[in-house]
Amino acid sequence: MQFELFDLAPLLVILPVIGLLVNILIGDRVGERGIGWIASLAAGLTFVVSLLLFFALQGHHEGATVPFLEWIRIGEFNVGWNFRVDTLSNTMMLVVSGVGTLIHIYAAGYMHYDVRYKGDPHSYKRFFIYLNLFIAAMMILVSADNYLMLFVGWEGVGLCSFLLIGFWFTKNPDGTDGHSNSNAAKKAFIANRVGDFGFLMGMFTMFWAFGSLNFGDVLGHGAVEHVSEGTILAITLFFLLGVAGKSAQIPLYVWLPDAMAGPTPVSALIHAATMVTAGVYLVARSAPLFHASHTAELFVMFTGAGTALFAATIAVAQNDIKKVLAYSTVSQLGFMVAAVGMGAFVAGMFHLVTHAFFKALLFLGSGSVILAVERGHHPLEGDGGHDDHHEDEHHDDDHHEVFDPQDMRNMGGLRKIIPTTYRVYLIGSLALAGIPIFAGFFSKDEILADAFLESQPVYWILTVAAFLTAFYMGRQVLMVFFGKPRTHAAEEAKESPPSMTIPLMILAFLSIFGGLINIPVIHPLTDWIEHTLGHDLVHATKFNWQVAIVSTLLALIAIGISWLIYGRKEIDASQPDPLQRALGPIFIGMRNKWYVDEIYGFLIIRPYERLSSFLAHQVDWTFWHDWFHDSGIAAGFRGLANFLANPVDLGVIDGIANGLARATKGSASALRLLQTGFVRNYALMVFLGVVAILSFLIFR
Amino acid sequence: MDFLFHPLNLVTFFPLVGVLVLLFLGKKEQENTARWVSLVTALITFGISMWVLAQFNPDIPFVQMYLEVPWIEFAGWTIHYAMGIDGISILLVLLTAFLTPIAILSTWTAVEDRVRDFMIFFLLLEVGMTGVFLAQDLFLFYVFWEFTLVPMYFLIGIWGGAQRTYAAIKFFLYTMAGSILMLLAILWLGIEGGTFVVPDLILQGGIDPGIQFWLFLAFAAAFAIKVPMWPLHSWLPDAHVQAPTAGSVILAGVLLKMGTYGFVRFNLPLFPEAARELAPLMGFLAVVGIIYGAIVSYPQRDVKKLVAYSSVSHLGFVMLGIFALNSQGIQGGILQMVNHGISTGALFLIVGFIYERRHTRELSEFGGLWKIMPVYAVLTLIVALSSMGLPGLNGFVGEFTILLGSWGAGAAGGSYGSYLFTAFAAAGVILAAIYMLYMFQKMFLGPADNEKNANLKDLNWREIAILVPLLILIFWIGLYPKFFFELMGPTVDQLVDLVNAASVAVR
Q1: pTM reported for the whole predicted model
Q2: Cis peptide leading into B231, omega within 30 of 0?
Q3: How far is A347 from chain B (nearest CA, A)?
Q4: Cα(A425)–Cα(B63) distance, rounded to whole angstroms?
Q5: Do residue B404 and residue A617 have CB atoms under 8 angstroms apart?
Q6: Within a domain: A174
């Protein structure tokens, strides 16, 4: 029986947890190499388990639920730690653990340099602990059998994102001391919390409508028919807010570009390939729900399409190599969200998979570029450069603030200097631009073909976004790799070590051939996911020659234009962007991200700060604490107490009290320290009051 | 002898043995002995609470291990010494017995002045708190309730900060003021019902809803100040900021729970009609407290004050859960009482650690501490995440079930108020992230640019040992809370049935 294999599912979470625990315990003793090995092995074994589950599914397409542990159970509410293995979750498992393992291996090389450039080699261990924690949380997310467990992974990956964005928490993204990195981390967490608010509300609505949060009960056959469309709409719109947070859609996308403050492997793994696609997975997973409400589908579709176009315009005007990729990621996530919104669940998942390959490749490639430039600018000891260790220390003070190794204006001509990185980066760019035979072509085209049938406006929005995609990637490749080196650092750039380039080559291979997993006519992925979502929700999209030709031509034209602007003649590092002359104020808007951060600051953040400061200092303290309580109540009471104290108390009762006090004086030194007329009078009043009440009750 | 060694009597009064020993100690020269005596006493008390737990049968939805003897006979009425335990009180008894040794251990180097007296008051406080949770006679309850004030008053007033006297008096007066109304209601109940024994009063029932309304309010006055519910929270920041660390831990961890416990123990079963009628009002105040507490926490410059205000927000969640009047809400509320005791208790300990080192709690004095004190930073992060309800940790289980219950109150009764309350309360979770992350960032992230922090020592073994039991509970409740829900489940279900039966009778 193959079914025993399914019982391995909890290992998906347990293995990376073991990895991080081992590193916590013995990481200091095994050195960098050991730490990298342990973490990569944990991720790699998770991939092996995912593969085993894949094979198990071959014989049993319907999948299985693997109960692990009871969790929360109150009355009719019953949610457990149950794992879900089916073709949809397994697709995510394979992507996350597969790409995750490659990035672990890459990071083992990359972080060796990064921790030294940041002057903190001890952080090497910390990085891999976080990375394994992320894999564990992501596996909880994709293998959950109910929404609440999914939510554990959902916020868990958010925590890892927070920790890794703020990995260099004493610094700014350019390496100087400051708060920018930790601000970016905080921003990511809070923006995601806004989304999570939606997720929570969706779950509350769902539980009281369906009586369960288990996938089987909510998404099972015919379950949605018993719930009113209004309720379904509420649930799905709440979830959409969650999707906007995690998958960086309008209006909550603002955290993702700032998240590039994290080390580059993090940008690749978390903020491009896996975590940010969780929202797409959530919609695909909840396909029966979204499909049941046409209004919900419209909202999701237009949110995605709007984000795809909006983010692409910003990507066009960025100079930071990672910022371009960040906005590109937001835009591509928009494609996926639009796809699952229009009911093209497979197309969305297909693009999710190929995007994981080529965007991870691009980010890791950009990391290789940045490191090459950084090493050209400022070689480390043993790097074979002309600097010796002594000079090394001085550099921190002199050069760090002026030289930005991520600025594409400081690059140029790297094609010949770091050829391996160039080749793989070019492959990734062509895949993202949607040039035929590369993976991105097939997946993007399937989305466009579906949009063409579903909604013409969305089709055209996405087509324009695809055009811009090809343009900004052309611009980036030309600025980074072509022309002549524009700085000394670019001239002296050094190719990265094999531990980094080999994962790049594997990802490049996947970026070329990844489209095969759902190649038109055969469409294996469609059949695969149909086993889970069912025939009603999954349809094989016919290859649309018209759509394919239009988008290919547009991509080629866009690349041609980018060559005219950025490739034809040499550009100078200090001159304004050539595009600025042509577009003027529009370019300024794009360069400044359409001022969305400023608008949020003006409309939300500063008003909140003012409100909280006003409530805390004026209302709660000056008015309520000081004036009302200390002046009002206390003063009134003092007056009353004085009245009682002088005529009433001084006579009879004080005498008794004093007598008692004298008797207990020896042991009452502690008491006496605090004894004030205030408390005594009060106690007297209490006593009198109680006597009065008692008398009333007894003798009435 | 059977009476003396009744498990509930033992768990309540065993700390008095420690007090006796301490009284025979000399004053100054034996500070360490005083510490060890009280720690051992508190640990034995914790052991006794485990013994109580072992004898407790969670399947019985009523008060068990019941003990009742006539105590005071007065003008024809009998006040009983009645003690008993059920699914609602057991968790709070365990919490008290658990937190007291931890708090005592935290004073090891923090309290140097009159150690013996401090320990005496601390153990007396434990007697009072445990008694509050076990008393089954209203009058006995009132005695314990008021009794807790005295040791806490001295703990704040003698070992507190610069404005300790003011804070101690304010704490004393505010709690007293509310208690008087409760006392009045207790007397009414006892005289009208012919007994002060709570289970008997509940069984009798049948109080006219009009009168229930006023009795409910009288009890609520005492409890709402204690919780504290918005807007009666004005004493809390003073008491917390001025109290010594161990005092804050117990104040937040246990004393505030006496208020929320009172609502569950008395207001719901004794005045069910009034509880249904007033549930929207209580829910409203709870939600205002959640939002207001969270907003006001954010701009605080003193870490301890920030944590104090966050309690207003967290206790709002507990109240919202209780007045959802369904199993999810009330069980979540009770669990959240425990959670808040653990997380906020731990936060106060954490504040105490840095205060002992730097003698300041101003956020602006810190920054970049992660670099200097990594162990401290990581443990603080876990506690902060627990406090802001990260799934997988304890706070989430409580908050989620409370909100689920609160939303369910709307789904069941068709009242849109409950939906709104839930939505606003859930938005409070966002605000919690804002102030907690802000605090964490200000203390631990960014560059370590204050030279006064440069040579701070990371946590020592004693300090880690104090936090570890709390951390274990944070993960235990977060991942596998079955044990806790099973303890209270039958009792709460019974209570919910009682309250709802009453509502049916009214309609």
Answers
A1: 0.91
A2: yes
A3: 31
A4: 71
A5: no
A6: yes
